[in-house]
Amino acid sequence: MEKQSLFKMGDPEIRRVVISSLTLSGAVGIFALSFGVASVSAGASVWQTCALSLFVFTGASQFSAMSVIGAGGSMLAAYGGAVLLAVRNLVYGLALSPSSKSLGRGLAHRLFAAHFVIDETTALALAESSPKFRKIAFWTTGIGLFSFWNLGTLIGALAGSAIDPQKFGLDIAFPAAFIVMLRPHLSTKLGRQTAVVGGALCLVSISFVPVGVPILIAATAIFLGARDGR
To answer: Do residue 99 and residue 202 come from a single domain?
Structure first.
């Protein structure tokens, strides 16, 4: 009787975690539509766009790479910027490491789980105090996001190949996406200082270095974060 009552008490909590995860996944999937459209407008094919979402699966890095390529930058510059943005996932992995046993046992299982270590899965998993709910939150969010993100990318890429991106203003999708991602960071003093330094470095270097490289130079402003003792 005690086990049954505990199970019944757990059902609403499981539904809460699953609903939260799937709601977020659907919202991010809608954002993937813009990536698919803008990626094709930047010159990538449908299959290249879909492969990027399938194997990279981290939106900021994908947007960064395609924005550099769309502006005429080199593959090396695109790769460098994408890697810089993806480094944060290493930190997420460290944050999740105490829960690694509950997320998967064995090297193969953990390597598979690592593909889903991104902003959203980390945030929702760490928001749960119970290892059981942390595991449910991680895998539901990870698989849900992966599915919706790739579906949204495919739909957007197919749509982007059939329309004129400049006619609908889709050629500014990448800069607009980065402005949206930047906004929360500007709420802090350190974030504003970093943004100003990064912008200044980009403006100074943009006139004499190849396309895409100013992004890498501007990214060095993140070392201002070393002053943050938190």
So the answer is: no
